[in-house]
Specification:
The complex is a heterodimer of chains A (about 500) and B (about 525). Chain A is mainly alpha-helical and about 500 residues long. Chain A folds into 2 domains: about 200 residues, Orthogonal Bundle (Cytochrome Bc1 Complex, Chain D, domain 2); about 200 residues, Cytochrome Bc1 Complex, Chain D, domain 2, CATH 1.10.760. In chain A, strands 1-2 form a two-stranded antiparallel ribbon. Chain A has a two-stranded antiparallel sheet with strand order 3-4. In chain A, helix 2 runs antiparallel to helix 6. Chain B has 2 domains: about 70 residues; about 425 residues, Porin (Beta Barrel). Chain B is about 20% helix and about 40% strand. The longest helix of chain B is centred in the first third of the chain and has 47 residues. The two termini of chain B are about 20 Å apart. Classes of the chains: A mainly alpha (about 500), B alpha+beta (about 525). At the A-B interface, helix 9 of A face strand 16 of B.
């Protein structure tokens, strides 16, 4: 027992990756998926059934209050539900559910199409926001024993809890047998495989039922605003979003996945709501000072702050259990601050945004993109152009870059030590750095931002071409009017 | 050389002599065995001896005749070689230099022009504009042919010196083998941009690789990877064969020179100068199309030709694991029966590999690529006048383009170009020749679109690359270009070139170029 279809344990990660990439399941005995003659649909494999049970089983955590599904909420595209995170952009966990994570929970939707991590042509692929896990199966094992998440001490404790959870236990041994439980580490691998099978097989993780998909099929109409938003999305001089979030299929799947799985440092503002950024901040639950387990990595001695989340180069290293994980990049400081480009499918459901959850809605995100290097932050421009007649037509009404006290932060790209500012992407639209030959104008107007957001909302799954009015889109996707934008010209 | 006039081989004469001597010996032995009839035998021996002397005398005459024939043949070969050498007779130099673009189908066996030409037909198969070194007959390399060509550019955009470039654009080596008078193989191997490696832009390519078999006197079959007989330049693209430092835009952006396909063809000609060529080949692959270039695919005139962004440059397959689900057909016709005039036209059509439709979307109809062209050239006296028109179409693109709104690079339904060119040999001395020229050219890589109004190009300055601070305007995919320049031939096989190109719309492309071309 303990093997899937006769595949050796050491190679299962590869099998799962291949299966995930192909999105096709190979029939292999009674453990595999098989067509259901009654429904005409494919019934889940025993592994996927076990994975589903594991995914939603809170009893497998030290707190008894946290499962994968606690942070990866199905109704939020398997990302976090802000309403249950006590106002934090990061999840709470630990034995008492009072320890904070350090990153915004990523969506698991369409994650199964992610290629393995590679550095051959720049960093690409891998799992977690920093690619430190080589496969979905490896990634899925880690939260069980992460201190600020499900907080089991080790694999033995996880297996012990599994034995105490009858329904999940039965599903697990139906797939893998009971014998493997004698080897907790091997059993953890099977738990990872089961979760990966669930995320790979279950159509709810990759339904491709967005309005955009039906529009491509000729079964839905985009509104003029949505259509214009797509034009702006693709236009290399306006949104240029497609450069990293391709709206065309790229070979990972026959559908467009709206990510190229590369890594980028976009210089997002620091989010002071992350407790790791403000040690000693009070817990939103108890009011007691929060303890963060994150240790600074690659933070220069003269940096502005003592802790930064630097993505590929820290603070977390690759798993020592994952022979195929990305190499340890902690010494490669040119990669500091790079995070994996996420899919934009269901992006309207996955607020807050970016790895630190600094933005609460898509309008903010797009506004920030097109004004990042405009004079919204004196620290970003060594030679700011004065506002007013004959000068910069864009007037500051605020800044996304703030210090802990809410005042404008003079440091350029303040969630990154100045020493790594050179890692920030300044060479692509929609950024308009001070060197930009066209001047300091954002590449999108307020109305165009609205159009772009309207298009992004069409990437929400669940559109029914037979009943278009039933499309349940988030509040931020309701018909939008042009909103004032930071850096808008002052009207007389 | 033809085998019909070869002298009797020396070794055959030697065999005859040995046989005669043997016969004489046999006679001698017989005589010794019959002493009773000595007088009769002696008479017979005397008669035979006399006959032998006569045979020997005749053999000596034959040997002498053979020696003279061999000398004559050697002399002829030396003369031929002399004529074919760079700096050879002015008649042949004129073939290359004053008529840098031979008729597209001059490769035909039995071509009357070739019959009258001192250059052996075998070399004309491979590269009419070049000299072919053939290994000495009788050696281990007998039948092997070697040739080559290459060109180096210096290009200087007049608006932006920072984009000046120097490039060993191509170094090409040809290898051929003549199996017999009716069957031969030719191939060309090309290194582009000096260094071909994973970290460099250069490429190593097989440009031609085919076998010719003469079926009848004026009809031959060709199979393999071969150049398509379109326009002036595609088949005859050696730098000594065209005016201007770099190739013209019509015959790179519309006709995707160097355009080659895998397949087979039949080609032939008639005694009155009509030539034809028809074949079945691999076609184009539209699934290779990139709808979302983040940066302009070209920012200089040199880039424009090298980027492979033109419709058929971006989708040709070059027999590199080519999709062969659909095959294309082509027909090329030419007439060169009037001295100094050559005219021709060609058309190719075939279904392409489609752009993949989104999952569950209705499949578009067949996406057919058709390209046709017509060209004419007239060389009265010192003038060299040429014109070409080429047009391509691709069908059923509405759904494909409509699913990529905002693309700066949709697939065009139609593209075309033309030029008029005039050159005049201003000065000649020995091998030197100076020929100024002017070319008036228009290209449009997207004159009609389906499913979109056309490329959505960013206005104003945009990043031209991911290098911070590299900004400029996104070029348009059409232009009117004037080219003024001169070819200066040191020999018919070595040319120095200079030109100035003025672009009307993409004014940043305007440039000054220098070039060195070699062909042998």
């Amino acid at each position: 027992m303990g093997s899937i279809c006769g595949v050796s344990r050491s190679r299962r990660w590869l099998v799962l990756t291949v299966v995930a990439s192909a999105s096709v399941l190979t029939a292999c005995g009674d453990e595999s998926s098989s067509p259901d003659p009654a429904s005409g649909e494919t019934s889940p494999s025993a592994a996927a059934v076990a994975g589903k049970a594991l995914f939603f089983d809170k009893s497998l955590s030290a707190s008894g209050a946290q499962s994968c599904g606690t942070c990866h909420v199905p109704s939020h595209a398997f990302a976090a539900d802000p309403a249950t995170e006590h106002g934090l952009p990061v999840p709470l966990g630990g034995p008492n559910m009072d320890q904070t994570g350090f990153r915004n929970t990523p969506s698991l939707m369409y994650a199964s199409f992610t290629p393995p991590f590679s550095l051959s042509d720049g960093p690409v692929g891998g799992f977690f926001r920093d690619g430190r896990a080589s496969s979905l199966a490896v990634q899925a094992q880690q939260p069980f024993t992460t201190p600020f998440e499900m907080a089991n001490k080790d694999a033995t404790e996880v297996i012990s809890r599994l034995r105490s959870s009858p329904a999940t236990f039965q599903a697990f041994i139906a797939a893998y047998g009971e014998g493997v439980l004698a080897d907790p580490r091997a059993a953890m691998e099977d738990i990872g495989l089961a979760l990966a099978a669930f995320e790979t097989e279950d159509a709810s993780f990759h339904p491709f039922t967005s309005k955009f998909d039906y529009w491509l099929q000729g079964r839905a109409q985009l509104t003029a605003q949505e259509q214009n938003g797509l034009v702006l999305f693709n236009n290399p001089g306006k949104g240029n979003c497609t450069a990293c979030h391709p709206s065309q299929a790229q070979g990972f799947n026959s559908h467009a996945l709206f990510t190229d799985f590369t890594y980028d440092n976009v210089g997002i503002p620091r989010n002071w709501s992350i407790p790791a950024n403000t040690p000693g901040a009070p817990s939103p639950i108890s009011g007691a000072p929060l303890v963060t387990t994150m240790a600074p990595v690659n933070v220069p001695a003269d940096a502005e702050y003592t802790y930064y989340d630097l993505g590929l180069c820290g603070p977390l290293l690759p798993s020592t259990d994952d022979a195929h994980a990305r190499p340890d990049l902690s010494a490669t400081t040119t990669l500091c601050g790079l995070f994996k480009v996420p899919t934009l499918r269901n992006i309207a459901l996955t607020a807050p945004y970016f790895h630190n959850g600094v933005f609460n809605n898509l309008h903010q995100v797009v506004q920030w993109y097109v004004t990042r290097d405009v004079n919204n932050n004196a620290g970003n421009n060594p030679n700011p152009v004065p506002a007013g007649p004959g000068g910069n037509p864009y007037m500051l009404v605020g800044s996304f870059y703030t210090a802990a006290d809410g005042t404008p932060d003079l440091y350029q790209y303040n969630d990154l030590p100045v020493a790594y500012d050179a890692n920030v992407n300044v060479g692509e639209v929609p950024y308009t750095p001070p060197t930009f030959g066209g001047g300091q104008a954002p590449t999108l107007t307020s109305a165009e931002i609205d159009d772009l957001v309207a298009f992004l909302c069409t990437l929400t799954d669940g559109f029914d071409p037979v009943n278009p009015s039933a499309y349940n889109v988030p509040a931020q996707c309701q018909p939008v009017m042009a909103q004032p934008m930071m850096g808008q010209p002052i009207s007389n | 050389m033809s085998t019909s006039c070869k002298p009797v081989p020396v070794r055959m004469l030697r065999v005859a002599a040995i046989l005669a001597a043997a016969a004489s010996s046999v006679g001698g032995i017989a005589a010794a065995a019959e002493p009773a009839h000595k007088s009769t035998a002696q008479r017979q021996i005397d008669a035979l001896t006399q006959q032998l002397k006569e045979v020997q005398s005749q053999l000596r005459e034959l040997v002498e005749q053979n020696r003279q024939l061999l000398q004559k043949e050697q002399k002829l070969e030396e003369e031929v070689a002399k004529v074919s050498q760079p700096g050879g007779s002015s008649a042949v130099a004129g073939t290359t230099a004053t008529n840098p673009v031979p008729p597209a189908n001059s490769v035909l066996p039995g071509n009357p022009a070739l019959t009258a030409n001192p250059v052996p037909p075998a070399s004309a198969y491979a590269n009419p504009g070049a000299t072919v070194a053939t290994a000495e007959s009788g050696s281990l390399l007998g039948g092997v042919k070697l040739w080559g060509y290459g060109e180096i550019y210096y290009t200087h955009p007049t608006h932006d010196n920072t984009r000046s470039q120097a490039d060993l654009a191509r170094a090409v080596f040809g290898i051929g083998y003549t199996f017999n008078s009716r069957t031969e193989f030719n191939s060309e191997f090309e290194v582009e941009h000096a260094v071909a490696s994973a970290d460099d832009r250069g490429e190593f390519e097989v440009e031609q690789f085919y076998v010719d078999r003469q079926l009848y006197n004026s009809v031959a079959l060709r199979a393999g990877l071969f150049l398509m007989p379109f326009g002036f330049l595609n088949e005859h693209h050696e730098p000594t064969n065209f005016y201007g430092v770099q190739r013209n835009f019509v015959e790179t952006l519309i006709i995707p020179s160097t355009w080659r396909e895998g397949g087979l063809n039949l080609h032939g000609d008639t005694s009155f100068g009509f030539a034809w060529n028809a074949g079945v080949t691999t076609g184009f692959d539209l699934s290779k199309w990139g709808f979302a270039p983040e940066f302009p695919p070209y920012t200089t005139a040199l880039d424009l030709e090298n980027s492979g962004a033109a419709p058929l440059q971006a989708t040709h397959q070059e027999l590199a694991l080519a999709n062969a689900e659909h095959l294309s057909q082509y027909l090329a016709l030419g007439y060169y029966g009037i001295p100094g005039l050559s005219i021709g036209a060609a058309i190719s059509t075939g279904d392409a590999v489609k752009v993949p439709a989104p999952p569950n979307a209705p499949l578009p109809g067949n996406q057919r690529v058709t390209l046709w062209e017509g060209h004419a050239r007239w060389t009265p006296g010192k003038f060299d006048l040429a014109a070409i028109y080429a047009r391509g179409t691709i069908s059923n693109l509405a759904a494909t383009n409509a699913s990529n709104p905002g693309s700066p690079n949709p697939i065009p339904s139609e593209f075309y170009g033309y030029y008029l060119q005039g050159a005049y040999t201003l000065w000649e001395h020995e091998d030197y020749r100076l020929t100024p020229f002017a070319r008036w050219e228009y290209y449009n890589m997207g004159s009609r679109y389906e499913g979109t109004t056309g490329p959505v190009l960013p206005a104003g300055d945009v990043p031209l690359s991911s290098s911070p601070g590299d900004y400029g305007t996104w070029p348009v995919n059409r232009d009117r270009v004037w080219t003024f320049g001169a070819n200066f031939y040191l020999t018919p096989h070595v040319v120095l070139k200079a030109d100035y190109q003025w672009f009307k719309l993409n004014s940043d492309f305007t440039r000054f170029d220098l070039g060195l071309g070699v062909s042998f």
